[in-house]
UniProtKB/TrEMBL annotation:
Keywords: Magnesium, Signal. Residues 220-370 form the AAA+ ATPase domain. GO terms for molecular function: ATP binding; ATP hydrolysis activity. It catalyses: ATP + H2O = ADP + phosphate + H(+). Its cofactor is Mg(2+). This is AAA+ ATPase domain. The keyword Magnesium applies. Gene3D superfamilies: 6.10.280.40, P-loop containing nucleotide triphosphate hydrolases. It comes from Macleaya cordata (Five-seeded plume-poppy). Belongs to the AAA ATPase family. BCS1 subfamily. One of its GO terms (biological process) is response to stress.
């Protein structure tokens, strides 16, 4: 009876108007303000909703007892979220924020090209009115950044490679990807510790350098050239870099790219926070045969605009300028926070344009195994620390390691073979190192001898030429009767 009476006395319009008025009065006197962040914004997914969910899942102060657990595709860990009407209190720069998760049934399915879920989900953020500016200017950005970081940490790294002949996959993407599970880290990488910490500090500065790059007007990217003999750990270093920074890897197979514009398109489809790798750059495109023309042309307009072809391998017409634009030009700045890594076994074969200052920011020489690197390999493969080995043995190893010029790959082979018997592994390695050092010495001596013989022959030839020229001159002068010149 009351309800009927109420409905008759208060028609719907009046009821809505009074609720609106009540809300207004409530808001007027309340010291809080509220923000709704719904899962679907119109028909599009609201990025902020996903970010908040991820961000809050990293917080331990959830009051509810029922949590929703999820594991995303390609993710190696679980994330949990708030259930319906659960609350969480967060603190940002001394300001308290109250988050509530709401789930309501969608009233009626409105017409949409995309089917909408039956439930309407969202978060309500409650904060004090006086903190509104702070929250809106920095808190939401902070949440987005944090969520991206969590997503990257939880998700498997991906290793991309460009499809054959630039073909596109079913999603129209030129890159194919697989989860990247390379276990190499800077801890397992055997190289000089000083050089290693230099590289790590450089990477850290780069990853934290957003403000620096913005302030100096530089594109947020960095180039590394890794060079050295095969088996010294260039690929392992790239994997360690990716694992250290949590970046994806784009392994660019240049021989599969036909033109400069294809190269540009590939670049456009790479994401931020990634390492773009071109391995064995000296073999990828013909950089040697081009040298003659490059000397005169690579700074010429044709080369600069990409028409001067340097590739002489079939239909491949990538130019040096195309490659340089890829790393350096305007296109290299689409997206940000990207690292370019080139590797080569023969740095001397590379064009000076690629090595010029500013092109590749850091040249890293991956050398034969040194003594400190050997100690890292002992720890990795045999679990032996320096103190576990006799001093005399260590001295012998230290004396012979540089002369042996063995790569970490060669040494790890010896250690893997005997890893069950640690002492035997070390003594066999010592024998292998000594043999190699001896061989190197013999080869060195032979080379020196052949150089000496060649030098002697050259000197002899030069002397003969000088004598012949002298005799000819003398003959000419005596024919002309030039006394002064004869003397
Ligand atoms: N510096 C290193 N530290 C640890 N392991 C190494 C190192 N160098 C090589 N290895 C081992 O040797 C193997 C081959 O190394 P890697 O492929 O990284 O060498 P590379 O220099 O890239 O060789 P290439 O020039 O032939 O591609 C790796 O599986 C790794 O286990």
């Amino acid at each position: 009876f009351c309800q009927t009476l109420l409905h008759t006395v208060f028609p719907p319009e009046l009821r809505f108007a009074s609720i609106k008025l009540f809300n207004k009065i409530f808001n007027w006197f309340s010291s809080y303000c509220y923000f709704d962040i719904t899962e679907i914004d119109g028909v599009n997914t609201n990025e902020l909703y996903n970010a908040v969910q991820l961000y809050l899942s990293s917080s331990a102060r959830i009051t509810g007892t029922r949590l929703s657990l999820t594991r995303a595709l390609n993710s190696s860990s679980f994330t949990f979220g708030l259930s319906n009407n659960d609350c969480i209190i967060d603190n940002f720069n001394g300001v308290t924020a109250w988050w509530e998760h709401f789930v309501t049934q969608r009233q009626s399915q409105t017409f949409s090209w995309r089917p909408l879920p039956d439930e309407k989900r969202g978060f309500t953020l409650k904060i004090e009115k006086k903190n509104k500016t702070l929250i809106l200017t920095s808190y939401l950005d902070y949440i987005m950044d944090k969520a991206n970081e969590i997503r990257r940490r939880n998700q498997d790294r991906l290793l991309y490679t460009n499809s054959r002949g630039g073909s596109l996959d079913s999603r129209g993407h030129p890159w194919e990807s697989v989860p990247f599970k390379h276990p190499s880290t800077f801890d397992t990488l055997a190289m000089d510790p000083v050089k290693k910490s230099e590289v790590m500090a450089d990477l850290k500065d780069f990853a934290d350098g957003k403000m620096f790059y913005q302030k100096t007007g530089r594109a947020w990217k960095r180039g590394y050239l890794l060079y050295g003999p095969p088996g010294t750990g260039k690929s392992s270093m790239i994997a360690a870099m990716a694992n250290y920074l949590g970046y994806d890897i784009y392994d660019l197979e240049l021989t599969e790219v036909n033109t400069n514009s294809e190269l540009r398109k590939l670049l456009m489809k790479t994401t931020s926070k990634s390492i773009i790798v071109i391995e064995d750059i000296d073999c990828s495109i013909n950089l040697t045969n081009r040298k003659k023309s490059t000397r005169t042309h690579y700074d010429s307009p044709e080369m600069r605009n990409g028409s001067g072809s340097i590739g002489e391998d079939g239909g491949n017409s990538i130019t040096l300028s195309g490659l340089l634009n890829f790393t350096d030009g305007l296109w290299s700045c689409c997206g940000s926070e990207r690292i370019f890594v080139f590797t080569t076994n023969h740095i001397e074969k590379l064009d000076p344009a690629l090595l010029r200052c500013g092109r590749m920011d850091m040249h890293i020489f991956m050398s034969y195994c040194s003594y400190p690197a050997l100690l890292i390999l002992f720890k990795n493969y045999l679990g032996l620390e320096k103190d576990d080995l006799e001093e005399g043995l260590l001295k012998e190893l230290e004396d012979v390691i540089d002369k042996a010029q063995m790569t970490p790959a060669d040494i790890s082979e010896v250690l893997i073979k005997n890893r069950r018997e640690k002492q035997k592994a070390v003594s066999e390695l010592l024998v292998a190192l000594k043999n190699r050092a001896e061989k190197n010495q013999i080869v060195g001596l032979r080379e020196k001898n052949s150089v000496n013989v060649e030098e002697e022959e050259q000197e002899k030839r030069a002397l003969e030429t000088t004598t012949e020229e002298g005799c000819e001159l003398l003959e000419k002068c005596s024919n002309g009767g030039d006394e002064e010149k004869i003397n």
